[in-house]
Amino acid sequence: SARTATATATPARTATASATPASNTAVLRINAGGEQQTVGGAIWAACTASSCNGYVSGGSAYRENDSNTGVPQNMNNAIFQTEWTGGTTQGIAAGNTAFSFALPLANGSYTVKLYFVELNKFAAGRRIFDVAAEGNTVLDDYDIYVRAGGANKVVVETFTIATNDGTLNLDFITGVENAKISAIEVLR
What we know:
The chain contains two helices and 14 strands. Residues 1-22 have low confidence and may be disordered. By secondary structure, it is mainly β.
C-alpha cells in the first residue's frame, strides 16, 4: 500500500450482525446518507445533505435502491440503500480524509458499530479506504466487497473506543475510489 497507517490498537471486529446484549444502551444511531428510520423501536437519525445535526464534514449523501442481504435486527433495507461517501470523485487524494463525523458524547468508553454494504463495486480492490477513530486507525485498507464476501451483503465492524474531549471523531480516509458508510451506532 502506498499509504501509511498508524494503528495503536487492533480492534475486535465481526463480519456478521449479532444481538446486542441488554447491558448495552444505544447512545446514538445514524442512518448515513438517508432519512430517519424507526425499526422495532430503534430510531436511526437522518443524515442527509440537509439534515445531519452538524455531525459530518465533507462527502455527500448517495442512494441506490438495491436489495441487500444480512440486514441486522432493528434495521431495515432502506438504511442500507443510502450511504455517506466521498473521496476520489471529489478530488480527495489517497491518504487524505474524505469526510469526518464528530459525534458529541460524554467522556467514556463506547462500543462503536460501523455498518457497510457494497452497492456498486463488484470485485475486490475497487474500493479501499481506512477509518480512524479518535486518531487511531481501526480499519486499514478496508475493502467492503472482500470483508462481506460480495456486493449487497451487510457487514458490521465493531470496536471499543474511549473519548476524553466530549467528541467521538471518525475519519474516513481515501484509498482506492470513495470511502463510505451506511450507518453508525454508538453503545454505552
